[in-house]
Amino acid sequence: MQCEICGLFNLATRECRRQFCEFCGYGTHNTYNCRRCVPWNLGPELCAAQVEDQSFFFIEEDIDPQASKDKETTAIITIVEGEADHKQVEVEFTNLMGDETWKWKAKVVDENRFTMRFPNAKILGQWCHFKYLPMECAEAQMKVEA
């Protein structure tokens, strides 16, 4: 026994799932040939197919503007030599940059690793140019990465 629609063996034609379109419900065509709802235009863009039945898709990142701004102004601060806690990192930036217009807040990510938001991306970029920064309030050196 062979299906007259899909060609699979041991499948009756009346039981074939390709007998009707799963998108629009019409029985005149199968899902692949549907002109009303083209499935490959509804999802992410197909970038490459290296192996049969395995494909790679490009999914565009849709970030709201506030999250994008946060991402551009957030730094990872790593203590590369010595030890310091988040309070010492905050005090260091307060002493260097001041606290009149910005409250420096460091959050612990891992041991000797912190995240900190900067007032803008330009200031963050300036701090990233330094290879290592010695800390005055702790005997340590830190590295700032965007």
Structural description of this entry:
The chain is built from 4 helices and 7 strands. The chain has helices at 39-42, 65-73, 86-97, 121-128, and strands at residues 45-51, 54-58, 74-81, 106-110, 113-117, 133-134, 141-145. The strands form 2 sheets. A 5-stranded antiparallel sheet has the order 4-5-3-7-6. Strands 1-2 form a two-stranded antiparallel ribbon. The longest helix is centred in the middle third of the chain and has 12 residues, at 86-97. It is elongated and about 85 Å long. The model has no long low-confidence stretch (mean pLDDT 77).
Total strand segments: 7
Decide which structural class fits the backbone.
alpha+beta
Low-confidence stretches: none
- N/C terminus separation: 64 Å
**Percent strand:** 25-35%
Q: What's the arrangement of secondary structure elements?
A:
Blueprint: H1 39-42, E1 45-51, E2 54-58, H2 65-73, E3 74-81, H3 86-97, E4 106-110, E5 113-117, H4 121-128, E6 133-134, E7 141-145
Antiparallel strand pairs: 1-2, 3-5, 3-7, 4-5, 6-7
Question: What's a quick, concise take on this entry?
Answer:
The protein contains four helices and seven strands. The protein is of the alpha+beta class and 146 residues long. It has two domains: 13-58, no CATH class; 65-145, Alpha-Beta Plaits (2-Layer Sandwich).
